Amino acid sequence: MGANGEAMSGCRIREIVERVGDKWSLQVIFHLGAGPMRFTGLKRSIDGVSQRMLTVALRGLERDGIVSRTMYPVIPPRVEYALTPLGATLLDAAGTLVSWADANLDEVDAARAAYDARAGATAG
């Protein structure tokens, strides 16, 4: 493959990594690993996500074949989201990353505080 093909492939890879690696998509993948969920259940389980950002993440993941959306013909309408087989292949990676973040929150917070203190001392 020539340089142009490699550049195109790299660009496409970056698009996919940006999709699955953004903060809301990663959490959606992680939470859907437990099984199908309705929108409100997802919103409740993902701390800090707005309705709009959850909708954007779900649509992007659905477009990329990672999440499926099933609408049931009942009144009121019921919609469930689930990982597709392709999405399930991301579950281990997403779970590892989310678990790492959870386990290291305090250490990251301490590092940020120390950095900000140093940066503030040199700026003043």
Describe the structure.
The protein is mainly alpha-helical and 124 residues long. 69% of the residues lie in helices and 11% in strands. It contains seven helices and three strands; from the N terminus they run ααβααββααα. The termini are far apart.
The secondary-structure class comes to mainly alpha
End-to-end span in angstroms? 52 Å
| Helix and strand element order | HHEHHEEHHH
Largest sheet: 3 strands, antiparallel
Instruction: Please state the average pLDDT score.
Output: 89
Count of helical stretches: 7
- The rounded Rg comes to 19 Å
Short description:
The protein is mainly α and 124 residues long. The chain contains 7 helices and 3 strands, in the order ααβααββααα. Helix 2 (23-32) packs across helix 6 (91-103).
How are the SSEs ordered, and which strands pair?
Elements: H1 3-21, H2 23-32, E1 37-38, H3 39-45, H4 51-63, E2 67-72, E3 78-83, H5 85-88, H6 91-103, H7 105-123
Antiparallel strand pairs: 1-3, 2-3
Features:
globular; single chain; 124 residues; mainly alpha
